[in-house]
Design a protein that fits this description.
The structure is a homodimer of 121-residue chains. Chain A has 5 helices and 2 strands, in the order αααββαα. The first copy, chain A, is mainly alpha-helical. Helices cover 60% and strands 7% of the residues of chain A. At the A-B interface, α4 and α5 of A face α4 and α5 of B. Chain A binds a DNA duplex (30 and 30 nucleotides) through residues 11-13, 37-39, 47-51, 53-54, 56-57, 67-73.
DNA sequence: ATAACTGTATTAACACTCTTAATACACTTA
DNA sequence: TAAGTGTATTAAGAGTGTTAATACAGTTAT
């Protein structure tokens, strides 16, 4: 369900945050569904429970999951997450468009590339 | 000409590599133009000469600059850099388009966003 | 030649972050 | 009560980035 990419320069806890967000976004984890416990996930991934805890704490801070002490971590409602994700995507588009423009890539070329990629993938 | 962003999580030497590439791309540094010496730039930016050296070494490795020992570092021909930069932009477009598609953002929405950003910035 | 620039290399120390390890404590559930 | 949850703390280790001090070699102008 989750794997760690040790060639990724980002810290493990940050990868975990993104992977779990992604699992929620694609619907593999649904609202109010329980996440694996800190210790179990740590064992599965062969990493330290503290690292899992750090990722879960960050996810809670972001409102992506909620915690019931003594019971476990659960997926929160996804409304905000979905909206945030769309905003994030728009922000990335804006950044790359600005970079493209600076590099004298025409609007048409950008759109052409978008179309090609969208149909391919 | 160059500033360091200490809130940027990336290491200084990596920021330098990007900033210098950018100066070349926008034409502020031209082929065969001499770059500031390791020691002078270090003094200007109030950082260690070794850090500049590391950035210059990486730029040389990438073929962006060339070195004449005892004389200095010079901007290389920009043909490859320009081509690489365009490829890099295409790669980024591909990545974001893929992400958008996964998030159920339609092709039309992406293009709409591209158009809006392109005209605005 | 000499001085004052260049780049390059080496070694050591320091700081920061990430990760691990070993515990301990509080809450929940069967 | 036992076994599972989350949470907190402290210490240690590893890795990377940065600094500092120094040395050496090539170039250029005087």
């Amino acid at each position: 369900m989750i794997t760690i990419d040790y060639s990724d320069r980002r810290p493990i806890y940050e990868q975990l945050v993104d992977k779990i967000k992604n699992l929620i976004l694609i619907g593999l984890l649904k609202p109010d569904e329980q996440l694996p416990s800190v210790r179990i996930l740590a064992t599965e991934l062969s990493i330290n429970p503290n690292t899992i805890q750090r990722a879960y704490a960050e996810l809670e801070r972001q409102g992506v999951i909620y915690v019931v002490k003594g019971r476990g971590n659960y997926v929160a409602q996804t409304t905000n997450l979905l909206a945030q994700h769309k905003e994030e995507i728009k922000g990335k588009i804006e950044a790359i468009v600005e970079e493209a423009k600076k590099a004298n890539v025409t609007k048409e070329e950008v759109i052409e590339e978008v179309t090609k990629c969208y149909d391919k993938c």
